[in-house]
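FORM 7B - TANDEM STRUCTURE REPORT

SECTION 1: FIRST PROTEIN
SEQUENCE AND TOKENS:
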Amino acid sequence: MSDDVKILFDNNRAWAESVKTDDPAFFEKLAAQQTPEYLWIGCSDSRVPANQIVGLLPGEVFVHRNVANIVVHTDFNCLTVLQYAVEVLKVKHVIVVGHYGCGGIRAAYESRYTGLADNWLRNIRDVHFRYREELDAIADKEERLARLCELNVITQVSHVCHTTIAQQAWSRGQKLAVHGWVYSLRDGLVKDLDCSVDGLELIPEAYRIVG
């Protein structure tokens, strides 16, 4: 085993011991049941760890991550996670979290050739095209990219709400709210984009499937 990998095992043992020192029954309780109240849909970026950012322990947040925190109706991986979180775990909050300085956002905006990933990043180009007038009015490129990060999150929140999974939960009276946040790598703080949705009545009729 290489030293680069061995250090991970050493770190794991040290972490497990420190957790047991603080709470000797922690792992027994963790193994017994998974009862998170939150589903985090975030970016794959290694600098954006879900649990640490919001100060939650293992078992307190269910996580799905992909490049640029995208939710599309053809991604069965994401939809499976969403369905399990909502229908089995009964999470109360789905949080779509983007981050400023996202490489996927920049690559899509600059129309870089990235190979297979271009097919995925096209979803961001759709967001860019939809809001092109607003974005073109922003003179500074970095500010424009930051706003595109925000608009992408807002769009993905609506995509979560347009799924049959979220709408069926609301139609049966289940408490569920969908939120959109952006994380800053510069100061570690999260910004609420004030685009939360917690019921069918907030969805345009064109996108309602049930109720």
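SECTION 2: SECOND PROTEIN
SEQUENCE AND TOKENS:
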Amino acid sequence: MMRSVGAVVAAGAVALAATSCGSDRAAPSDGVGGTVTVFAAASLTETFTALGERFEAAHPGTRVVFSFGASSALAQQIQQGAPADVFASAAPKNMQQVVDAGEVTATPVTFVRNRLEIAVPPGNPGRIAGLTDFANPDEKIALCAEQVPCGAAAKTVFEAAGITPRPDTREADVKAVLTKVTLGEVDAALVYRTDVRAAGGKVTGIDFPESAEAINDYPIAPLATAPNAAAAAAFVTFIGSAEAGAVFAQAGFETP
């Protein structure tokens, strides 16, 4: 069972109260140190990278190492014994796979939500107006593979809209799909709203109403066999803090 991040924000705020926001924070007395390895969904790349630096500043002597990718692939790697301390998924389904395998003993916490947005190259050369254009064979379209969270969400919105998409390519994760747009190789793609914002002027985003039908919850949990259990627990608490919440909001994530 997963619970909302709201239940852990207070604890995170207490843990952070003794520190300042800059790199000159005093060394903590909680004994957290060493390397913490975090497996995280590709759509968390920018925010988690920034938050990893803040976590290291709050805990001198700690190093955060990230492995970003499709949540489905990361879950499989964890089940196959890949050494990691924390798993942050872009969908509850992939987290549940890891829970069912006995790799997570703590209750996963939903820390943010995300929704899809249409991404087009600057100037919108394909003249994409909305979701119906994804059924047009004359448009070059990119989507995530259906087994990864962004692909599963895309399938849901297309079904809700009664549209059969005609993608020219399906990619392994949302960042690979976004790259197709930034390189001008496709006329449109479905990615997360946060990816459009992170890309800046390299893409243009187009909202569509059906995105409300497939909002992804992002759960996080320390792994049962974490090599650095203390740092894993501290990192999960930090992700639920008010400081981290402000970073997520700036990136376009929604609160659970």
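SECTION 3: OBSERVATIONS ON SECOND PROTEIN
The chain has a mean pLDDT of 90.
The CA atoms of residues 41 and 71 lie 5 Å apart.

SECTION 4: SIGNATURE
Preparer initials: ____
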